[in-house]
Amino acid sequence: MKRIYLVAVIAVLAMVVAACDEDSEETTTTAAEAEPTTVPAEAEGPPTGPSSLTADAQESDGTTIVVASVTLPAPGFIAVHGDAEGSPGPVVGHSDLLPAGESTDVTVTLDEPLTESGTLWPMVHIDLNDNGEYEFFPPDETIDVPGVDDAGDVAVIPVEMTVG
Q1: How does pLDDT run across 79-129, given as a tens digit for each residue?
Q2: Which of 7, 67, 149, 150 lies in the 20 to 30 Å Cα band around 42?
Q3: Which of 99, 78, 47, 93 is nearest to 157 (CA)?
């Protein structure tokens, strides 16, 4: 028992001497300070641009809107927003999943029929998580983000609808 104790004491003294040695280099280890980072949506999924769409003013029975053409950088949707004093408001309908590339004459059925003429705002949305389901119901669910045009602006246009 005395032998084990003696060996342990010698080992501890050796470590103390080594730690106090003037020739030894001092090493300090510090944890890197964590900085918040913002990862662009594109880094986490498919690209959001360039996206574009076109549509003309149109007459409708109030149940649908037709988008003449839409160009998507990845699979996505056309979300149709109502008007909020001259800008896009709440989503009032959305297309089925569209493929990457150009689609023409896309008919989008509205969730509720329009009862009067006004402006609708078709907007490109990208299927960011690639599950084929439209998931943009702010403020709680905003997975399928808006697509952007060449300038980096949201790809959205106003369309005058005449109900009759």
Answers
A1: 999 999 999 999 999 999 999 999 999 999 999 999 999 999 999 999 999
A2: 67
A3: 78
